[in-house]
Amino acid sequence: MSLRLALIRQRYRPDGGAERFVSRAIEALEGEDIELTVIARSWERHGPARLLRCNPFHVGRLWRDRSFARCACRAVSAGGFDLVQSHERIPCAEVYRAGDGVHAVWLEQRARILSPWRAWSMRNNPYHRYLLHTEKTLLESPRLRAVICNSRMVRDEILARFSTPADRVHVIYNGVDTQRFHPRNRTHRERFRRTHGLPAAAPLLLFAGSGFERKGLSATLRALARAPSGMHLAVIGTDKHGRRYRALARSLGISERVHFLGRMEDMTTAYAAADALVLPTLYDPFPNVTLEAMASGLPVIVSQQAGTREIIEEGVNGYTCDALDLDHLAEHMAALADPALAEQMGQAARRTVEPMTLEAMNRALRALYARLLSETGRNHP
């Protein structure tokens, strides 16, 4: 008998980490004895999964999230699913994947770069107050049977802030396609650089991710201004304030070394062209781009506010520092300007993530689903 599993995520964005996780989970579970349903407003790539569309009218993000939550919960009630796994903060989930982390922690980290007035306004914004309330309601709900965290960092934050029983909180790291993201893609290095107007031989850092404020592009640019003058930066992703970051690069005198390449569907050749990934994010539970970059043979520089720090061995496969520590960020950039060191650390990075495959993630998810079903006496495949 097939396991009837519902996955809830409000919408699909090609560059969204949570969306990519759901897509990969669908791919990883394909061929298993599982009947998958994706409950979403829209979903571009659901493959073998059935799409159950919940797209009520809304104006503004507060109405958007509330209306989707109500619609999704009605769909769950009528669906007859064995398990319901949500990637949104909604009260009807039995399994919640905390891929966005803890909202209160994100607000605290963002407040570090805001003026006191803007920080106060953010904390008292109705939308953020709604998310804080729904997050607490969900994580302390007796209906909730399991929380999937993609890092120990998020697990510890949940246990410190909510009354969620510890035995319901599980760490399952994201999986990465280690065959698709592979050092052998370096054969595309020269062509990618030539196509995008990048210098053929210069040390090249890669910054990847939309939402530049959260991902730390400002700190990256300011640190690059202190790094060796021959080092370049490729920025992949989009942001509604993109002009602001281009202006910052000009004001720092590094605009000729910063290349804004926009959004890319296929990142494999971008990793192949780079020498290292830099992502001093203000807060990120476990950015997928770090796994992809490491699988591609790149060392990474990440902040201590990213779950990736858990797999970084300082100076061996990457570096960590506080998201706003420009001195150490620039120091790490300078170290990776040495191509021999970058290559050596990239090989170590690849070895680190080789066990973190989609298959490993699939096995962990299947084991959790089997345990949850056995607790209720339901059959499972």
User: Helical stretch count?
Assistant: 15
- What's the multimeric state? single chain
Give the overall shape: globular
User: For the largest beta sheet, what order do the strands appear in spatially?
Assistant: 3-2-1-4-5-6-7
Compute the number of strand runs: 13
Arithmetic mean of pLDDT? 91
Quickly give the CATH architecture of the largest domain.
3-Layer(aba) Sandwich
Instruction: Specify the helix fraction band.
Output: 40-55%
Supply the CATH class of the largest domain. Answer: Alpha Beta
- Briefly note the structural class of the backbone: alpha/beta
Q: How can the largest sheet be summarized?
A: 7 strands, parallel
CATH superfamily of the largest domain: Glycogen Phosphorylase B
Written account of the structure:
This protein is an alpha/beta fold and 381 residues long. It folds into 2 domains: 3-175 and 357-376, Glycogen Phosphorylase B (Rossmann fold); 183-353, Glycogen Phosphorylase B (Rossmann fold), CATH 3.40.50.2000. Helix content is 42%, strand content 15%. The chain has helices spanning 17-29, 61-79, 103-111, 116-123, 126-139, 152-161, 189-195, 212-215, 217-224, 242-251, 268-273, 288-295, 326-335, 339-353, 358-376, and strands at residues 3-8, 34-40, 50-53, 83-86, 95-97, 146-149, 169-171, 204-208, 232-236, 258-262, 276-279, 300-303, 318-321. The strands form 2 sheets. It has a 7-stranded parallel sheet with strand order 3-2-1-4-5-6-7, sandwiched between helices. Strands 10-9-8-11-12-13 form a 6-stranded parallel sheet, with helices on both faces. The protein starts with a strand and ends in a 5-residue tail after the last helix. The mean pLDDT is 91.
